[in-house]
Amino acid sequence: MTALESILKESLAGGATMPFSSFMAAALYHPRHGYYAAGAQRTGRRGDFYTSVSVGPVFARILAGEFCAAWERLGKPDDFCVIEAGANDGQFAHDVMTWARDRRPDFFACLTYQIDEPLPANVIKQRGKLAEFTGKITHDAVGPATAGCYFANELLDAVPCRRVCFTGGQWMEIHIGLDAEGTFVEILKEPEDGALVRRLAWLGMDFSEGYRTEMAPAVASQIRLAAQRLARGYLFFADYGYAARDDYAPHRTTGTLRCYRNHRAHEDPLVEVGETDITAHVDFSLAAQAAVGAGCGVLGFLDQSRFLTGASAGVLAEMEQGNGEAGGAWRRQFQTLTHPAHLGQKFHFLVLGKEVAGLGLPAGLTFARPSAVAELLDAKFGEEEDPGGDD
Ligand SMILES: C[S@@+](CC[C@H](N)C(=O)[O-])C[C@H]1O[C@@H](n2cnc3c(N)ncnc32)[C@H](O)[C@@H]1O
User: Fold this and answer.
1) Which atom of ligand 1 approaches the CA of 43 most closely?
2) Among 128, 162, 353, 377, whose Cα sits 20 to 30 Å from the Cα of 40?
3) pTM for the full model?
4) Is residue 193 in some structural domain?
């Protein structure tokens, strides 16, 4: 039994229960024993799963170009901030800062990199990784940045979600409790949380018996927080997920919750608690609608393959020349990031703008279809109920 399982079982003794979202929050973020809080390496070859960041520096190199172009479109302000949430060990920040320093010193001179990081273990790692950029990196947010970009890779899929099950003609929320042997079990209860109840009303009742899914109203809160961090600029969220119409499609009868350990995926979040990643696909309609409510424009929604291809003119030119670091290794990274069978189609970019009307679009949106944004904001999922709400 893991240390966290003992703690959770103690708190559930005597018949207590907790919503799955609270269980997931503890599993990932318990201050000492949470999967992300404990300080162990979680991404990359020696971790449990790969992310676009752990593939290598090409991902950050391409995004750095987007941040620099945003700085130019905004009129090259003296004070420009890149804000990252979910920065893990600081690798992405390091790759962005290295590119800016080496390739665009004019941009670098105006750039501050802000990391929004709630976990002390990560702050320590980030300070170490970014030591050469001390003075340009900050962990202290003082009001919204006047101009900048907000970036998050795989942040939203790590937001604790609620789980629901359609049974007996109604939606029930999944809670976690203990059985007579002291084993974690699921317990169905009528939904009470206001945001969840509103969201379920909006989802409707046309589902098969036993249909399970997840809802993460806290994603909307996370988007609103992000929108508040910038007075003007662009926000980039990269993650796996769907428009709501796909997320809650009839054939997705067991939802999208997945657990990862040692590069193996399974669907049981009640085992190896605190040592296993728990994640759910992002409902990008919820995210987009929250963004609109927070005063942002939804500029584009497209798969990672098309986003990176549109944004990568500079990187592709360097790869063409094929010298040094920009040779074979970069090409392999680019293929992993964009190939449909690897990360290219599974991951999507949601791009938002705040006070940027008339300034032009990020190059990553070159191959975006306007209808994809319309689908996110689709009337069926947008007008009947307030899609926001807090967890
Ligand atoms: C799947 S990992 C992705 C890490 C990194 N972005 C990458 O792509 O390799 C999710 C990260 O989001 C962080 N996270 C979750 N909620 C957060 C929040 N509210 N603010 C900042 N970071 C958060 C977790 O601690 C974890 O490091």
Assistant:
1) 9
2) 162
3) 0.95
4) no
Contact 97, 136 (CB under 8 A): yes
**Cα 346 from Cα 338, distance rounded (Å):** 10
pLDDT tens sequence across 314-326: 788 777 776 666 6
Residues spanned by the domain of 345: 52-158+216-381
CA of 390 to the centre of ligand 1 (A): 19
179 within some domain:
no
Q: Is residue 202 part of a domain?
A: no
- The token duo for 331 is 């090409």
Ligand 1 closest atom vs CA 238: 8
Residue nearest to atom 26 of ligand 1 (CA): 86
**How far, in Å, CA of 295 to CA of 287, rounded?**
13
The tens digit of pLDDT for each residue in 173-232 reads 999 999 999 999 999 999 999 999 999 998 999 999 999 999 999 999 999 999 999 999
Q: Name the residue of 24, 29, 33, 36 whose CB sits within 8 Å of the most ligand 1 atoms, as the mutation to test its pocket.
A: 36
Which of 115, 154, 349 for mutating ligand 1's site (highest number of atoms within 8 Å of CB)?
Answer: 154
DSSP states along 59-85: HHHHHHHHHHHHHHHTT--SSEEEEEE
Question: In angstroms, what is the span from residue 209 Cα to ligand 1's centroid?
Answer: 34
CATH of the domain at 308: 3.40.50.12710
Give Cα 135 distance to the centre of its chain: 27
